[in-house]
Amino acid sequence: MTGLPGLAWRQLRANLAVPLALAVLVLLVAFVVTAWPRVLADVDDRQVAYETDGVSVLRRDVIGVQLGQQPGLPAAPEPGTTGLEPDVEASLGGLLAGLEELRAAQPEPLRGILGEPRATVETPEVDIRPVEGGEIGRPRVSFKSDPYLTDHVELVDGAWPAEPPTADPFAARTPEGMTLTEEELAALQAEADALHARPVQVALSVDAAEVLQWDVGKEREAPGSERTLLLTGTFAPLDPDEDYWGHNPRSAAPYVVDDLNFGTSASAAAYVHPAWDLAPPLPMPMAEPSVRMWFGVDGGALTADAVPEALAQLRGFTAANQPLGESASAEPLSQRFGSELPEVLTRILAQQSVTSTVLAVVAAGPLGVTLAVFLLGARLLVSRCRSSLALLRARGGSGVQLRTMMAAEGLALALPAAAAGAALAIALVPGRTSTGDLALAGGVALVPAALLALATSPRGLREARADLGTSRARLRWVGEVVVLALAAVGVVLLGQRGIQPGDGDTDPLLAAVPLLLALATCVVVMRAYPWPVRALQGALGRRRGVTAFLGAARAVREPAGGLVPAVALVVGVSVALFSAVLGSTVSEGVQGTAWTAVGADLRLSGPVFDAETVGRITGVEGVAAAATVADAGTIGVTAGGQTHRVELVALDPEAFRAVQADAVGIDELPTGLGPVTGDRLPAVLSTSLGAGPGADGVSASIGGSTPLDVVGVMEDVAGAGAAADFVVVDHATAEELTGQVLRPRVLLLAVEAGADPGQVLERVRAIEPDALAENPSADAQNFLASPMAGGMSAALGTAVVLSVLLVLVAVVLTQLMGAPQRARLLAVLRTLGLHRRQGQGIVAWELAPLAVVSVVAGAALGIAVPWVMLGAMDVTALTGGDRQPDLVLDPLVLAAVLGGLLLVAAVAVGVSTMMSRRADLATQLRTGEG
C-alpha cells in the first residue's frame, strides 16, 4: 500500500501502544459524555416524580370547589356519554363530561399530567341522636354522593343504598288534560307523602359505624327533621393509603375530637345513592351542598425537560375561570381551579438550576483535563513519529500532507472507539439521549484528529531546547493577561449580582467563572513556580551531589510538558477538592436544616403534653431531658414605634437549653431569658421585628401592657415551630401574666449518649402513640435519599475518581513525552559515573516541583470555587431549607482527597523513574552520535 494511507498505516503499526491507548481513552470519554446526560435526565425525571408524589394530594392535585348550588351543575349529557347508570348520569354526568372535555382541551404536557376528573357532592354536617350511654356525645354526619365510590371500596355488610324516590306520582298518574277527583288527588298526595317520608338510606365505613355505634339495618333520628336515617351497609377501603381518601376526609374513618369542655364528638361521611339530588329539601332541610371536583396529578408522567412549560400552562389554567359546559337553561358555567403544584414545580426548577450549574462546573474540570490528556497523547505520538515525519518532510512532503496523514490516523483510531463508547452508554445506562448528546460523542471522535494535526508542525520536527525559544513569548503574555482579566471580571460580576435563585437553566456566568479561575491559576503557577525552584537550584549548587541540582535545573529549563500538565494537575486537583468541599457543605446543610426544624434528638407534636405525660416520657429508658413548647396565642408587640401581631411562645429556658445542648448547627437560645427582673419581662424577639438586645420602648400586650427586656433576637427558634414573627418568654411567667393554664403541644427530647433515637422513639410511642414524631437524623437521611441528592452525591464522587485517574494519566504521559531526551541525558551522565539511583532522582525532580506547586494551587482553587458559588447561587434547593449553608471544610475529607492525589502523583513519578531504567545505554549513545 502506497501513498498517505499506506504511510499512515505503517506509522500506526510502528507505534502501536500509544495509538491504542488513545483509542481506549476516546472510548471511555465517549461513553462518559453519552452516559452523563442520560444519567442526569433519568435523575431529573425521578426527582420530578419524587417531589410531586412527596406532597399531599390536597396540595398536588388541581381542585375546584363550588359552594352551594349556584351557579349550578351542567346539564345532563347525551345518554351513554360517561358510562354511568342513566339516573346517575342525569345527576352528575354533565359535570363529569364537562370536566373531561376541559382536560382534553388542554395542551401537552399539562393534559398528560391531569388524571381522570372526579367529583363528589356533600352537604354540611347534621347532628344525629347519640346512643344512650355511648362514648360519643355528639355524633354528626354529612350526606355525600360519589358515582365512583364502589371503585375504591368493598361492601362488608348489608347492601348499598337504594335509588332516591324521584318519581312524581302526580306526573305519572295524570296524563295531560285528565281531571282527577278529590279522592284521587288525596290518594296521590298520600302516596307522595309516604314516598318522601321514607328513611334516607346511607352507607358508612366500618370504622365510622363502629365509632358511631350504628348497626346495619338500624335507623337513627336527626333532631329537627321528620326523616330518619337508615344504615343499609358498611364498606372498607380497598387501599387505605390511596390518594382518593385525601379528597374524601371522614369517609374511610371518622374524625373524632376529644374536648374537655364539650366532650367527645365524631363526624363521618354518610354516602347516599349517587342519583340523589342533595339540594334541599332532600334528603333533609339544611344548607346548600358543595361540589368538589378535581384532577389527580400524575407526577411520573412529567419529564424534567417539560417542567417549565407545564408550570406556565398550569399557572394559566388556575389563573382564570374554566368552562364546564351549559346549565339546563343554556347558561354557560365555569369554575376556578387551584393547586399548590406550581410551588412544587418552581422548587423543582430551582433544584434543576442548581444541580445543572454545579454539575456543569464538575464536568468542565474532567473534560478540561481530558482535553489536556488528549493533547499530551497527540504530542507524544507525534514525538514518537518525529524521525519519520522529518524524513517525509525532507523528501518533499508538505505540511498539509503531514497534518492530513496524522489527522487520518487520528480519525481511524477515534471514530470506531467513539461509536463503541456511545453505543455502550446507550445500552447500559438508563435515560434519554438527544441528538445533541450524540453530537458530543461525535465531537470526541474529532478531537484526536484535530490535535494530531495541530501538533504536527513542520517547524517542530527538529530537536530544540524548550527554554531557548522566544518567538511565542509575546503571544503568551497577551493570552495570560486576557485570561486573568476575564477571571477577575467574572468574579466581580458574580459579587455585584449577589445570590441568585435558580430558574431551571444552567447559569452560564457561574459555570464559566470556575473554569476561568482554573486557567488563571495555571497561569500564575507557570509564572510563579520557576522562582522558588531557581532559588532552590542556587542553594543546591553549593552542595555536593549532582542529583538535586541537575533535577532542579531541568525543572526550570524544561518543565515537564509545560502548561498542559500544569492545567491537568491544577484542574484535576481543584475538581477533586471542589467535589469534596461541596459534598461536605451540602451534607452539613441538610443536617442543619433537619436540626433547625426538629430542634432536638426527637420532637413530638400534636396532643397536649401535661406534666404527668411529660413525667412518664422522661422516665423512658434512653431519654436524657425533655422540654415543652406552648403556643400562647397572638399578642401585640410594640417596637420602634410600631405595633406588630406576633405569636407568643412560652417555654422553660433551662429545660430548653438542656435539650439542645448537643444539637447540631442551630442557634442557641440567648441567656438571660427567665422570670420578670425588675419591672420588665425578659424576652427573645424575632429578627423581623427590628428590635435588638437592650432596645428601649419595647412592650407586649401580656396581661396588659408589659415592658419587655430584649435579651436576644433569633431568626427562628429551632423546634418551636413558631411563625415568622414571634416573641419567646418564660412559661411560668406567661401563665402568671395571662392568668391561664397553657397547654403545650410540642415536646422536645434529648437522647442519652450512645442510645439509638429510633429505639427510644419506639419506647416513647408506647406512652404517646398519636403524636407526630420527628427525628433529625432520619429526616436528613430521607432527604439525602432523594434522586437529586443521590445523583449529586454520585456525580461528585465520580468527578473525584475521574479527576484522580486523569491526573495519573496526565503525569505518566508527561513523563513519557520527555523520555527520549531524558534517556539520552542519563546515558551520557552514566558514562560519566552517575549511578542508576541518582538518575532516578533526576527523573523524579523533573516533575516533582511542578506537581507540588500544582497540587497546592489546585487545593486552594478547589476551596475558592465553592466559596464563590455559595456567594452567587442559592443552593438551599440542595439542602431543603431556606438558609444559605456556610462553607464546610472537613479536615478528614480534605486530608483524604489531598493525600490520595499526592499518592497518585508519587506513583506516577515512581512509574516514570522505573521506566527510565529500561533505556539501553549503548543504543542511546549511538542515537545521540547519529
Automatic annotation (TrEMBL):
<feature type="transmembrane region" description="Helical">
    <location>
        <begin position="563"/>
        <end position="582"/>
    </location>
</feature>
<feature type="transmembrane region" description="Helical">
    <location>
        <begin position="892"/>
        <end position="911"/>
    </location>
</feature>
<feature type="transmembrane region" description="Helical">
    <location>
        <begin position="358"/>
        <end position="382"/>
    </location>
</feature>
<feature type="transmembrane region" description="Helical">
    <location>
        <begin position="792"/>
        <end position="814"/>
    </location>
</feature>
<keyword id="KW-1133">Transmembrane helix</keyword>
<feature type="transmembrane region" description="Helical">
    <location>
        <begin position="847"/>
        <end position="872"/>
    </location>
</feature>
<dbReference type="InterPro" id="IPR050250">
    <property type="entry name" value="Macrolide_Exporter_MacB"/>
</dbReference>
<feature type="transmembrane region" description="Helical">
    <location>
        <begin position="508"/>
        <end position="529"/>
    </location>
</feature>
<keyword id="KW-0812">Transmembrane</keyword>
<feature type="transmembrane region" description="Helical">
    <location>
        <begin position="402"/>
        <end position="426"/>
    </location>
</feature>
<keyword id="KW-1003">Cell membrane</keyword>
<feature type="domain" description="ABC3 transporter permease C-terminal">
    <location>
        <begin position="799"/>
        <end position="919"/>
    </location>
</feature>
<dbReference type="Pfam" id="PF02687">
    <property type="entry name" value="FtsX"/>
</dbReference>
<feature type="transmembrane region" description="Helical">
    <location>
        <begin position="438"/>
        <end position="456"/>
    </location>
</feature>
<dbReference type="InterPro" id="IPR003838">
    <property type="entry name" value="ABC3_permease_C"/>
</dbReference>
<feature type="transmembrane region" description="Helical">
    <location>
        <begin position="477"/>
        <end position="496"/>
    </location>
</feature>
<protein>
    <submittedName>
        <fullName>FtsX-like permease family protein</fullName>
    </submittedName>
</protein>
<keyword id="KW-0472">Membrane</keyword>
<comment type="similarity">
    <text>Belongs to the ABC-4 integral membrane protein family.</text>
</comment>
